[in-house]
Amino acid sequence: MAFPSQVSIVEVGPRDGLQNEKQILSVEDKVRLIESLSATGLKRIEAGSFVSPKWVPQMGNSMDVFTTLNRSKDVTYSALTPNLKGLESALSVGVKEIAVFGAASESFSLKNINCSVSDSLKRFEPVVELARANGIKVRGYVSCVMGCPYEGNIAPTSVASVSKAMLDMGCYEISLGDTIGTGTPSHTKRLLDEVLKYLPCEKVAAHFHDTYGQALVNLYTALGYGIATIDSSVSGLGGCPYAKGASGNVATEDVLYMLNGMEISTGVDMAKLLNTSKFVAKLLGRPPVSKVANALCA
Ligand code: HMG
Ligand code: MG
Prior knowledge:
alpha/beta; TIM Barrel; globular; binds 3-hydroxy-3-methylglutaryl-coenzyme A
C-alpha cells in the first residue's frame, strides 16, 4: 500500500511522558507545556489521566490541569479513564475525548489495572457506553502488542482479538502500544497482517516506545500499511510505571523530521516543537532524548 499523504500526530507527552518522570510537575508547568504544544499545530494532545493517584501520583493533578488549561477550539485534549470513576472526573471538567486502556497480555493487565483482560473489557463497556451517551469520543489502547515485560512474546492473534473487542464496544480508534519497544519491522508486519484482517487501517494508531531504538523503523513499516495516526511524545518523554524497562515514546520531533522528509503533511511546526522540547527538558533538568532536538538545538 502507498504511504498516507497526511498523518495525524497524537501528542502523548503530557500523559505518557510525565506519568513516568520521578518529579511531579506542577499544574502551572503542565499547562504551559500543553499550551505550548497546542501552539505547534498539533491537533490531538493527551493532557492527563484520571487514574488512582496511589497508582500514578504524577497524574494526580489532572483535574486541575483541565480546569486551568486555556483550551484551543482546534485541539482535542484527551485523558485516560480506566473506569467509571475516571469517566466521572473527565465529565466534570468537560473532557471531550477519553481513552480506555487494555492489554494483550494477562500479566500486564493485572499489574497495570489490577484485573484480567476479560474483566477489563467488562469494566470498559459501561465507560464507553456512558461516554458516548454524553457525546464523548472513546479511544481504545491495547498494550504489549509486540512483547510483554512479564510474559515475553505476545501472539498477534491475541492483539487482534482484544482490538476487535474494543472496536466492537464502541471505541472509534485502537492505538497499538509497543509498551516496552521490543518490536522490529518484521514483528510490526506480522502484527499488522493479523490486526488489519479485523480492523480497517483508518481505525488503527501506532503507539511505539523507543526502548530498543526501533520505533521509527517500525513506524515506517506501519506507514506502508496505510496507518495514518501516530502517537509520540515531545522530547521523547515517556514510559509506563507498570512496565519495567519501558523507556520513552518515540519523540515527536523525530517522527516529524521523518514525515517532513517523506513529504507527509502533519500541520506541525518544527521550530515551535523544538522550543517546546527544550522547554520541557529544562523543566525536568535534563537534555531532550530526541535525536533531532539534539542535532538541531545544539
Ligand atoms: P484498584 O485498586 O483495583 O481499584 O485499581 P479500586 O476500584 O479497588 O479502588 C481502589 C482505590 O483507588 C479507591 O480509593 C478508589 O477510590 C481509587 P481508596 O478508597 O483506596 O482511597 N480509584 C480511583 N481514584 C481516582 N481515579 C480513578 C480511580 N479508580 C479507583 N479512576 C485502577 C484499579 C484501574 C484504578 C488502578 O489500577 C489504576 O489507577 N491503574 C492505572 C495505571 C496507569 O495509569 N498506568 C499507566 C497508563 S497505561 C500506559 O501507560 C500504556 C499506554 O501508554 C499504551 C502503551 O504504551 O502500551 C496507554
Ligand atoms: Mg505508552
